[in-house]
Write a structure and sequence with these properties.
With about 325 residues, the protein is of the alpha+beta class. About 60% of the residues lie in helices and about 15% in strands.
């Protein structure tokens, strides 16, 4: 699908854009400011290639990890591919490649998923004075929205981590539910750790794009506000990366604490079995002695030999239990 955003009104200041999804046989308007390609077919690739006079990278090419394959200039057009976080609110977040192509005053984006930042920026750009009148301005607005979305995700994860932290260190009156809660905590920490890792990878990818833009702006004459926008985006990215690193370390701390509590629970269970084994060792010894089939055992002739043996076994079981209780090992 090809979605075209055209500027509303005239002039040289900021403007709003109107969104229009092209039909298969419909040509691309000459005044298109932003061409958004969502899961494009080969025919749609050829249509946009004919319009901008440049090639469109394939889905396989967008998966490359070499910077030279993700950030380059070809035929006067700047190609920048970043990995953005998708479906952050679900249990299966993922990273998707998005390619930004700057061609003169137009921006072309190629993507095969729907990052939330694109919807947010499309709504923002549709408002009065929502975006600029050049491809660089649209790209700058998109990057700002991506950074805002990343901040929202990190804040959301931070709030959930705080809830997990309170649950980990909160005393439970019912110890029977503790194991199930600890298992749920481990699963939650694993999901949050994976989400933070993917978000940090996305931030690093966007930072490379911003660095590539800043280097290009040194040789290309652009408006001062665009240069300032790039510098501000770089500061925000570095700040969010540090915050993501802090959250990752907090998750690791909670993971270690949870595993420590699991070990304590296991130790309590093992201690209980050890105490039971020690309690029954003396009775077992007594029973083993009097279970021997020797002829010359004087106790076999006692009238009260059997109750005496039973009493000794009970006493031998009670004394270790009282000793453990006195030592507070139970």
């Amino acid at each position: 699908m090809i979605i075209v955003y055209r500027p509303d009104g005239s002039g040289h200041g900021r403007t709003s854009v109107s969104r229009h999804a092209l039909e298969p046989a419909e040509p691309i308007p000459a005044d298109a400011l932003w061409i958004d390609m969502l899961e494009p077919t080969r025919e749609e690739d050829r249509k946009v290639e004919g319009f901008i006079g440049a090639s469109i990278p394939t889905r396989e090419e967008m998966k490359d990890i070499e910077p030279s394959e993700l950030l380059y200039t070809e035929g006067g057009n700047r190609y920048m591919t970043a990995r953005l976080l998708c479906r952050a609110e679900t249990d299966e977040p993922c990273l998707t490649g998005v390619t930004f192509i700057l061609r003169n005053a137009q921006l072309v984006t190629v993507r095969y998923d729907e990052p939330r930042a694109f919807q947010m920026y499309a709504q923002r750009a549709g408002k009065p004075d929502g975006c600029g009148r050049s491809g660089e301005s649209v790209l700058g607005g998109l990057i700002d929205t991506i950074i805002d979305r990343a901040a929202d995700v990190l804040q959301m994860v931070g709030e959930r981590i705080d809830v997990v932290s309170r649950n980990v260190f909160e005393e439970r009156r019912d110890p029977n539910q503790r194991n199930a809660e600890l298992q749920g905590t481990l699963r939650a920490l694993g999901r949050y750790g994976d989400l933070i890792s993917k978000q940090r990878e996305s931030l690093v990818s966007i930072e490379r794009v911003v660095l590539f833009l800043s280097v290009g702006y040194r040789t290309v004459r652009v408006a001062p506000e665009l240069r300032e926008q790039v510098r501000s985006a770089m500061r925000d990215l570095q700040s969010l990366e540090e915050h993501a690193t802090f959250q990752a370390s907090k998750i690791q701390f909670l993971l270690d604490a949870t595993l420590g509590l699991v070990n304590l629970e296991q130790n309590n269970i093992i201690k209980l079995f050890s105490v039971v084994a020690v309690v029954f060792m003396p009775p077992t010894l007594i029973a083993s002695i009097y279970g021997m089939n020797f002829k010359n055992m004087p106790e076999l002739e006692w009238p009260y030999g059997y109750p005496t043996a039973i009493g000794l076994m009970i006493l031998a079981a009670i004394l270790p239990y009282l000793f453990f209780h006195w030592k507070r090992w139970l």
